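tool=predict chain=A
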Amino acid sequence: MRALLFDIDGTLTRSAGAGVRALAVAVGARPRAGEELRKMRLDGMTDRAIARTLLAAERHGAPHDVPEADIDAVLSQYLGALEQECAGKSYVTLPGVPELLPRLAGRPDVLLGLCTGNLEKGARLKLGCAGVWQYFRFGGYGSDAEPRPDIVRVAWQRARELGAKDAVVIGDTPRDILAAHEAGLIGADGKRRDRSPEERRRWAERYNGRPVTERLRQARRTFVPRAQLERLFQLPVVDYAAFRKQLDSVVDQEP
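tool=predict ok
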């Protein structure tokens, strides 16, 4: 049995800034944290790492110096604000997800799980709001660990306890796939990364900081519709078949 470990934001669901609004409520009257939030790229980050970064910015300190109790307090406020956002149906599924998940859930050789930086309650709120929470039997969450590779390891351990022999992590950002490779699993680019630390470092250096390549990898992993591809690259995709061929040739190159 193969476990499919899905990320949530940008992979299964989308919203019009609901998560950022909930975070803004959580940081409250902290001007430096609010300024940092407006500058941050949150995709692929874990909830706890986001809260830690925001509080560190407010204090002009190092992230590891932020008290855990302060992070817990911000995340508690965040979940309350997120619940209000979800009550307003702020999260919807991406195109094709409502059709895909029941088909996968009905297969005896597939085990559906989550692998997300969201806290477990946050994941339940978002997917419940979007109407797809019921398809996932288990997961690894931001409430299990802060580093993303550790979340992958937790999800994989739970998958094995349910009988999985293999797993694929499916996400929409380089952080998702790098975490899968760091944990020794297959990313949704289809290649297992059982490599030495030096090989993983070289691979990360190649793809981190390469915006075009990152967008190519994002498009390939999520199989987004043509209109979304056009927005992703900010140019029209005239020949989709040729585009996919070129995309595959770029992302499949080994370092």
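The two ends are 31 Å apart (CA to CA). The mean pLDDT is 77.
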